[in-house]
Amino acid sequence: MMTSLHSIDSLRNAIREERTTAIAVASEYYQRIQNYDGEVGAFLTLCEERAMKQAGLIDQMAAEGQPLPPLAGVPIAIKDVMVTAGVRTTAGSRILDNFIPPYDCSAVTRLEAAGAVILGKLNCDEFAMGSSNENSAYRPVHNPRDKTRVPGGSSGGSAAAVAAGMAIATLGSDTGGSIRQPASFCGVVGLKPTYGRVSRYGLIAFASSLDHIGPFANTVEEVALLLRTIAGRDPMDSTSADVAVPDYVAELVKPVKGLRVGVAKEYFAEGLSPEVRTAVEAAIQELAKLGCEIIPVSLPHTEYAISTYYIIATGEASSNLARYDGARYGFRAKSSTLSEMYRKTRDAGFGAEVKRRIMLGTYALSAGYYDAYYLKAQKVRTLIARDFKEAFRWVDVIASPTCPTTAFRLGEKSNDPMAMYLADIYTVTANLAGVPGISVPCGESSEKLPIGLQLFARHFDEATLLRVAHAYQQAKSRLQHG
After folding, report:
1. 154: which of 89, 128, 360, 399 fits an S-S bond (Cβ 3.0–4.6 Å)?
2. Of the listed 93, 132, 136, 154, which one is catalytic?
3. What's the number of domains the chain is made of?
4. Is 347 part of any domain?
5. Which residues pair with 297 in a beta bridge?
6. Per-residue confidence in pLDDT tens, the chain, 482 aa
C-alpha cells in the first residue's frame, strides 16, 4: 500500500514553482483511489468535476505569479457526515442514499477558501455510530495496514484514506473517539479539538453536545495547519466559540522542556493490552527525555465514562434522528398512510446499530426514566469534567493510550455491542469534558499493527497539545532514522 508522496508544504512549493500542477496532482490521487480503494473501501462518492475546477483555479494563480493560499492544491477528502453542495452526502446510511445538499459545511468552505482540492466523501459508520466502520450501510472499510482488520470508527474511511496515501489529509468527526481511535488503528495522526473550536455548521448531527470536527494527516505539523484553517468563530453555529485562533504551526517550534505531563492510573488498568501499555509507557519516557516532567494524576470518575456517554449520546441521537421520517428529504418507503410511511421508512432506512441507539435513547429520555438515566448521566458528566479541571491545575497535558488494543479483526466484535462500546473507553472522556485530544503513532505490536499515544490538554489549549505531540513525533522520527 502506497503512502503519500507529498507533504502539504512540498506540494504547495512545487505548484508555486510550476514543477507540477494542481490538476496533475489531483489526477494522480484519483488514479491512486482507482488503484487501491477497491480493497480498502474508504470512499463513497468522488467529486472529480468540483476538484478539477478548484485545481484549475490554483494553477491559474500559480501561472499569474499570485501568492498561493496555505493549502493550495492539497488533495483532501471529507467524512460523509459533512454536507457538500451538489455532492451526495449519505452519513453512511440508506436513509440518505439520494440526498444532495444545497450548501457546504463551514469546515469544507474554509478548506476550499485556503486552496484545498476536495477529492470526495469518505465512508463511515452510519450516522457516525460505531467503532469499526462495519456499520456503514454501503460496505466496511478495511485497514490499509492489515486488510483483515477494521480501521476503527466511525471515521474509518478518513483514517484509511490517509494511511493508504489516497489523500494527503482528511476531515473526520469525533463524538466519543471517532477521530482518535481510527488514527491509532491506522497509524496516522488524528485530532479532536476543544468543543466549540471548530464550527459544526453542516455536520450531520449524532449527539450535538459531543460532536466535533477534526483533521487527520501523517504529521502533527499538517494537522496543525488544517486546524488553523478550519478553527474559529462561525456565525452559523451558536456553539462555536469566539476565542482567538493562534498560529498553531508557529507554536510547534516552542520547546517542551519544563512542561508537565500527567499520567492517570485509571487509563492503565485492567483490559489494557500489554503491548499497548509497553509502547505508551516508552512514549511517556521519551517525553521525559525531552525535558517534560512526568507527574501522576487521577481522573477518578473515568470508570463511569462509558455508561454516562452511552446514555447522553443515545438520548441526543434519538432526538436528532427524529427528522429522518421520509417526509422532507432522503429515502421514503411506499405506504398508504402517514404513520405507515414513518414506520416503514425508518425501518428500511436505518441499520441495526442506529436503531439500537435510537431505542436506548428514547427509553432514557422517556417519562419516568429521564431523572434516573439522562439527568443522572449529565451530573456524572460534570464530575468527569471536574476531574480534568483538577488534574490540569497540576499538569499541562495528560498522556494515555488511545485504545486498549490494536485493530481487531473484521467481524470479531460485530455481534457484541458491549465489547464494541468498550473500545472507546479511553476516548469518550474528552468528549464528555469537551477538552482537546490527539492520537499520535507511538509504536507497533508484534503483528506490526499501529499503537497510538493519546494526549489531552486544557480547553482551547490545542497549541500546547500540538507542541508536545510534534516534539514526540520529531524525536521518534530521529530515533527511527538516526
Report:
1. 128
2. 154
3. 1
4. no
5. 264
6. 445 568 999 999 999 999 999 999 999 999 999 999 999 999 999 999 999 999 999 999 999 999 999 999 999 999 999 999 999 999 999 999 999 999 999 999 999 999 999 999 999 999 999 999 999 999 999 999 999 999 999 999 999 999 999 999 999 999 999 999 999 999 999 999 999 999 999 999 999 999 999 999 999 999 999 999 999 999 999 999 999 999 999 999 999 999 999 999 999 988 899 999 999 999 999 999 999 999 999 999 999 999 999 999 999 999 999 999 999 889 999 999 999 999 999 999 999 999 999 999 999 999 889 999 999 999 999 999 999 999 999 999 999 999 999 999 999 998 888 888 888 999 999 999 999 999 999 999 999 999 999 999 999 999 999 999 999 999 999 888 76
Active-site residue, 238 included: no
For 24, counting Cβ atoms within 10 Å of its Cβ (0-12 exposed, 13-18 middle, 19+ buried), the class is middle
Name the active-site residue from 4, 132, 155, 178. Answer: 178
402 beta partners = none
3-state helix, strand, coil in the chain (%, to 5): 45, 15, 40
Domain housing 270: 8-305+375-481
Cell of 10: 512540498
Residue matched to cell numbers 477518578: 300
Torsion from C-alpha of 273, 124, 160, 465, nearest 10 degrees: -70
Q: Which helix (H) or strand (E) holds 10?
A: helix 8-16
Distance, CA of 197 to CA of 460 (rounded, Å): 7
Looking at residue 386, its amino acid is R
Q: What is the DSSP letter of 234?
A: -
Residue 348 lies in a domain: no
Task: Note whether residue 151 is domain-resident.
Answer: yes
CATH number at residue 82: 3.90.1300.10
φ, ψ of residue 191 in degrees (nearest 5): -120, 130
Does residue 333 form part of some domain? no
Using CA atoms in the order 270, 440, 229, 110, what is the torsion angle rounded to 10 degrees?
Answer: -60
Backbone phi and psi for residue 479, each to the nearest 5 degrees, phi listed first: -65, -40
Calculate helix-pair angle for 352-365, 305-320, nearest 10 degrees: 100
Q: How far apart are CA 179 and CA 155, in angstroms?
A: 6
Q: Is 79 a catalytic residue?
A: yes
Q: Determine which one of 4, 79, 136, 158 is catalytic.
A: 79
